[in-house]
Amino acid sequence: MKNKFSLEIKAEIDEIKHKIQVWKNLFDIEIELYIDGWAIFLREKNIYPRIIIIFKSYENCSYSIKSFEVHLKNYKDEEFKELYSIENIKDQKYLLNELKEVIYGKDLINNASKNYKNTFLK
């Protein structure tokens, strides 16, 4: 297992963070390091409450992206409903392409289509 404080991991996270800065006006960006991997959280700043998470395990050489809709329960506790998930993204280029599609609404369209029996994909 790689050390979460290694220069290689720091460089990888910094490179991705630099590339997603184009969306800094739309999202608050936060990075967290864990025992088994790292995650970048993008919390949407506009009215629609959505969080997009990029995760990479230290043991696995692939990325995953998950998108969640955020709801308030009793006006204080956040609840999350998964909108979209993709795993086993092998490289940064594909990761950034997939992230761009999710940011531009791929997760919302897929979720709406699933809820309304693919009406929006016809």
Structural class: alpha+beta
Let me know the average pLDDT: 85
- C-alpha termini separation: 45 Å
Q: What is the chain-wise order of helices and strands?
A: HEEEEEHH
Low-confidence stretches: none
Counted by DSSP, the helix tally is 3
Number of domains: 1
* Widest beta sheet: strand line-up: 1-2-3-4-5
Total E-strand runs: 5
Outline the biggest β-sheet.
Answer: 5 strands, antiparallel
Oligomer: single chain
What does the overall shape look like? globular
Rg estimate, integer Å: 15 Å
What is the helix content? 25-40%
Organism: marine sediment metagenome
Protein name: DUF5655 domain-containing protein
Verbal overview:
This is DUF5655 domain-containing protein. This protein is α+β, with helices and mostly antiparallel strands. It has one domain (7-116). It has three helices and five strands, in the order αβββββαα. The radius of gyration is 15 Å and the shape is globular. The mean pLDDT is 85.
Brief descriptors of the model:
single chain; about 120 residues; alpha+beta; five-stranded antiparallel beta sheet; 3 helices; DUF5655 domain-containing protein
Task: Summarize the helices and strands and which ones pair or pack.
Blueprint: H1 7-20, E1 27-33, E2 37-44, E3 50-57, E4 63-73, E5 77-89, H2 92-103, H3 106-115
Antiparallel strand pairs: 1-2, 2-3, 3-4, 4-5
Give a brief rundown of this model.
With 122 residues, the chain is of the alpha+beta class. 30% of the residues lie in helices and 39% in strands.
